Give the backbone structure.
Amino acid sequence: MGTAEEQKVQQKKAFGWAARDTSGFLSPFNFSRRETGDKDVTFKVVYCGICHSDLHMIKNEWGVSTYPLVPGHEIVGVVTEIGSKVEKFKVGDRVGVGCMVGSCRSCDSCANNLENYCPKMIFTYGGTYYDGTTTYGGYSDIMVTDEHFIVRIPDNLPLDAAAPLLCAGITVYSPLRYYGLDKPGMHVGVVGLGGLGHAAVKFAKAMGVKVTVISTSPNKKKEAIEHLGADSFLVSRDQDEMQVAMSTMDGIIDTVSAQHPLMPLIGLLKSHGKIVLLGAPEKPLELPAFPLLVGRKIVGGSAIGGMKETQEMINFAAKHNITADIEVIPIDYVNTAIERLVKADVRYRFVN
């Protein structure tokens, strides 16, 4: 689609921060958003979380990025304009947008409120919208989004600390529910204590589950137990600790996106236990079959959640006072923040 034609479609002036190439360096970017359509909600972006996938996308590490790229899919703000057919929102509402802004709305997944598994799901940034234009994310001043893909943020949740729940929160909430790891008294392990891991501990604890954090870093023990409320802590490199914990867990939420051995984790599961992978290591993980057979164990995966469940997650978070632990930064600090994220030097989410 030619630039002139694109201009006809997109008319609202917008300002954001974009990567122009695989260096991933972000700089100011003037662009346009479409005018508010019949079913669209336009909102002023107040905060946007920095997710690990932003880092992969700005550097094209997944091979799907197009430039200029405006990242950001943990977006919260306040409604400034609504389309004539919008039913669920009004001007002044506190709202959010997560990882997707569109889907086909007619396949089995969409019919079952699982738009996140729709083959035509449209990502909040770096995707191609119905009109052929590229989607730009939340490192910007305004968003225009179909109301179906907008979440209402309850009044008692602070906007800044609620933002990361739209990606990190739903990514851990959905598998806890789907794989039945949400029953009071169950024992669930959480591998990795980053943005996803710290959210998993909070949600699982609110569901009444006993939580053990599994990490390679012994120095995170105090934080995990005293601050996040985990019941216990395992150092995954400590053979003795791991041995004692063998066959004690009903399930494991594995948030690690780096290469790591699955065998010791599978050993921690009781018979019929489940390990759910949420991280996406670049190289395939080694999966031994025998330990799965002898305990009838399951290795599964999960990716974000549908819109209905995302709203349910936010309401649950509001009820139980669950927020992300964040460091709020000014937008012109964003490149430094991304360098720190590469080194995992953040507890546990940047928000700009």
Notes: The first helix runs from residue 3 to 9. Residues 34 and 267 are 52 Å apart (CA to CA).
